[in-house]
Structures are given as C-alpha cells and as structure tokens.
C-alpha cells in the first residue's frame, strides 16, 4: 500500500511501549508525527528518539503528538528506552509501537525489499487532526532526520491551512509569506493582509506573516 498526500492515515491497533494503541483514537484532535525505525538498539535511531523527546514542549505548542515504530517487541523497546534516556540525557515521553508482526509496516509501506526485506525504512508521516497525511519523508538508513525541518513544515501547514498563503523556500516562522495566486480581488487582499504586500512579479506577492 502506497500512502499519498491527502490520504486518510490507516488506522490500526497495536501494542506499544505505553500499552495498546488504537491509532486514530490515540491521535484524537491532535496533529501527529509517525516515524519508523529499522530496529531497536540502532545508533542513528537512538539519537533521533532522544532528540524527539527533547522537543516535547515544541510539539506541545503546535498540538502535535509523536509516535515511533520499530519491528521489535515491547520488551526490547523498554530496554532500548533505558539506553536512549541514558545516552541522550533525556526521558522518552512518547510511545514506540511494537510491530513484530509487521502489520503497521505493511499498512504504511515501510518495508522496501530493495533496502531490506525484513526491516523498516526510515520514514516519517505528518498527519493532521482530520487524519489526513500531509507530509511524507523517507531517509536512507545512514542519515538521521532533521527534526527542525519537521517543526518548520508543521508551522507552514498550520499557517497555510488558516490563511490564503504559501511559504517560500527556506521559510521560517515569522518571515514573509506568499499570497496564493488564486487570490486576485484587491479589496479582499487588503482585508486579509492589512500590512500590505510587495509584488516582485504579478504572480509573486510577498506579505508579512499574517498571524504575527
């Protein structure tokens, strides 16, 4: 099964380091980040899970819940969490799904035979409160994920869901945004963007971020 942007994230029920998870119920009205790991006790994943734990307040500000996945069982996850807490100087504060039967991995197409036919790839999904998939990223096993980029994308998605704007290359929260090309009525533009805008080209109109 291939997950595409705009698809409803597949629901599932599976054990985790924090007990049985019914995914859609667990998400509730929150945004979610589901990210997979090739196996427990792998070095790059250890750093990723530790860093995710340290971002708890940043995720909370944005109404985001994090949940990880590995194909190893719960008892292995619990031992691994001890290692993560020790080596990364943190406390893992989100569940790790125990996907020993590969049920969730199959639902989310996380096992790629050309990479490894038994281990999940390093994939990540951003899921909105309507359970729609809004971002997918797959990294090679050798490269750790950039979680600052994940936060940046969540900021962009939440902003552009509420205003008729898009975010330009390398945009960071608080910087100028692009007025969407479909918005052409100048009266409406003035109402929506009282700080005005500058037209670099007729199709490229930049305005201060409206919620700042």
Would you give an account of this structure?
This protein is α+β, with helices and mostly antiparallel strands and 212 residues long. The chain folds into 2 domains: 7-145, Glutaredoxin (3-Layer(aba) Sandwich), CATH 3.40.30.10; 163-207, Antioxidant, Horf6, Chain A, domain2 (Antioxidant, Horf6, Chain A, domain 2, 2-Layer Sandwich), CATH 3.30.1020.10. The chain contains 7 helices and 11 strands. The protein has helices at 23-27, 43-54, 56-61, 74-88, 103-107, 147-162, 186-192; strands at residues 13-14, 21-22, 31-37, 64-70, 96-98, 122-127, 133-139, 165-166, 177-179, 198-201, 204-207. A 5-stranded mixed sheet has the order 5-4-3-6-7. A 4-stranded antiparallel sheet has the order 8-9-11-10, covered by helices on one side. Strands 1-2 form a two-stranded antiparallel ribbon. The longest helix is centred in the C-terminal third of the chain and has 16 residues, at 147-162. It is elongated and about 60 Å long. The protein starts with 12 loop residues before the first strand and ends in a 5-residue tail after the last strand.
């Amino acid at each position: 099964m291939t997950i595409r942007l705009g698809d409803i994230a597949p629901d599932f029920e599976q054990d985790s380091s924090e007990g049985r998870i019914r995914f859609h119920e667990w998400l509730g009205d929150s945004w979610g980040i589901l990210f997979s790991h090739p196996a427990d006790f792998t070095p790059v994943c250890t750093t990723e899970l530790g860093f995710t734990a340290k971002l708890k307040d940043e995720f909370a500000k944005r109404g985001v819940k994090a949940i990880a996945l590995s194909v190893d069982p719960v008892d292995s996850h619990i031992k691994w969490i001890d290692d993560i807490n020790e080596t990364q100087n943190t406390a893992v504060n989100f569940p790790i799904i125990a996907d020993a039967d590969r049920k969730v991995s199959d639902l989310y197409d996380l096992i790629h035979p050309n990479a490894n036919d038994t281990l999940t790839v390093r994939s990540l999904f951003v899921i909105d409160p309507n359970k729609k998939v809004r971002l997918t990223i797959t990294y090679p096993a050798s490269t750790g994920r950039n979680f600052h980029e994940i936060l940046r994308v969540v900021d962009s998605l939440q902003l552009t869901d509420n205003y008729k704007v898009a975010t330009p290359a390398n945009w960071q929260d608080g910087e100028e945004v692009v007025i969407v090309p479909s918005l052409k009525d100048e009266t409406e533009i003035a109402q929506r963007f009282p700080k005005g805008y500058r037209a670099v080209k007729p199709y490229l109109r930049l305005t201060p971020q409206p919620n700042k």
